[in-house]
UniProtKB/TrEMBL annotation:
Transmembrane segments annotated in the record for this chain: none
GO molecular function: oxidoreductase activity
Ubiquitin-like domain sequence ranges: 2-72
Name assigned to this protein: Ubiquitin-like domain-containing protein
Organism expressing this protein natively: Alexandrium monilatum
Ranges for the HEAT repeats: 313-341
Function: Catalyzes the hydroxylation of the N(6)-(4-aminobutyl)-L-lysine intermediate produced by deoxyhypusine synthase/DHPS on a critical lysine of the eukaryotic translation initiation factor 5A/eIF-5A. This is the second step of the post-translational modification of that lysine into an unusual amino acid residue named hypusine. Hypusination is unique to mature eIF-5A factor and is essential for its function.
UniProt xrefs under SMART domains: EZ_HEAT, UBQ
Length: 341
């Protein structure tokens, strides 16, 4: 029997008893079982010699009775090759292995995963997100440092992945992260801009400057960026802030996209003061919209902002009891009940 001592680069040690005719790949299998390092990521080194999987252990043991010492070195080259192959099956295999590797993958693993958090394939995106969640956590400074360079990538999907990664691992109010996210608000890709809006709202402390940065995206040329900006501004605003209410009211009055208007109505219901007549008037204009979702959202927002016993609001809601849509009628009935209870 051979006594094999495997040393990891982090200082850990694994002792094994193996037959001389055992192959090197058997050692890798033991390492994978104990240390959760996939065999494909292992390089076993004897002095300066990298052993092949099919080498026999006895071929390299020259002194009887002394431990056969190996060093396990991590190599993610095969994962990088699979992820860059463009073949979903290979990419998913690599991502599963990186998930098994977890934090041991370090900055290299984070960089590889960031590039696929925004992948075109939903399956690859989900696998990358799963692997990333097992590799890095909130406050991981190494992961933050590994994610930031991706914001300069030529591929918008790689830049998107870096923004998503930063939102996941950065701590709130990290000045460096907030600065790079601020730059991403001007990205050429609408997908990156939307992700930057959401990340900034999640990580920044509420302030007039943050509101101004996010408010600028209310004028974005892409509707889903504007909708994300509406939600983000609401998240960082103080209740009753007249400036924010005015911004949201303008978006509601001017935007041609129904989803953006719907989100703006929900936001106004959260931010505006109860009984705000100007806001109620803006909401009332949406009651005649052709979209059922818009009319229903208008009814719900009006009911949320109305003060108890408001006769004018009661009249608006009563008129919606004759709406063509049963969903709008149900919302109006619920609003009237809340108004009079």
């Amino acid at each position: 029997m051979l006594h094999v001592a495997v040393h990891g680069v982090s200082g850990e040690r694994l002792d094994l008893e193996l037959q001389p005719e055992s192959q090197v790949k058997a050692v890798k299998q033991h390492i994978e079982l104990v240390w959760s390092v996939p065999a494909r990521f292992q390089k076993l080194v004897r002095d300066v010699l990298v052993l092949s999987d099919t080498d026999l252990m006895g071929e390299h043991c020259t002194a009887k009775g002394t431990p056969f010492v190996l060093t396990m070195v991590l190599s993610l080259a095969s994962a990088k090759e699979d992820l860059e192959s463009g073949r979903a099956s290979q990419q998913l295999r690599a991502l599963d292995d990186l998930a098994s590797l977890g934090p041991r993958g370090g900055a290299i693993s984070v960089s590889l995963l960031c590039a696929h958090l925004g992948d075109a394939s939903p399956d690859v995106r989900r696998a990358a997100q799963r692997a990333f969640s097992r590799t890095a956590g909130r406050g991981d400074e190494c992961a933050v440092a590994a994610a930031v360079p991706g914001l300069a990538a030529r591929s918008w999907r790689a830049r998107l992945g870096s923004v998503l990664a930063l939102e996941f691992v950065a701590v709130q109010r990290d000045a460096m992260v907030l600065e790079v996210l601020e730059g991403a608000l001007e990205d050429d890709s609408c997908h990156v801009r939307r992700a930057a809006v959401q990340a900034l709202a999640s990580l920044a402390a509420p302030s007039d400057r943050v509101v101004c940065l996010l408010a600028a995206r209310l004028e974005d040329t892409t509707c889903w960026v504007r909708a994300a900006a509406v939600k983000a501004v609401t998240a960082v605003a103080e209740w009753g802030d007249p400036h924010v209410v005015a911004l949201l009211g303008a978006r509601l009055a001017e935007d041609k996209d129904r989803e953006t208007r719907r989100v703006a109505m929900q936001a106004l219901a959260e931010v505006a003061m109860p009984g705000d007549q100007c806001t109620l008037a803006l909401l009332a204009r949406q009651l005649e919209d052709e979209g059922v979702v818009v009319r229903r959202s208008a009814v719900e927002a009006i009911a949320a902002l109305a003060e108890p016993g408001d006769g004018h609001v009661a009249g608006l809601l009563s008129a919606r009891l004759r709406d063509d849509s049963p969903k709008v009628r149900m919302a109006a009935a619920a609003g009237l009940q809340a108004l009079t209870s």
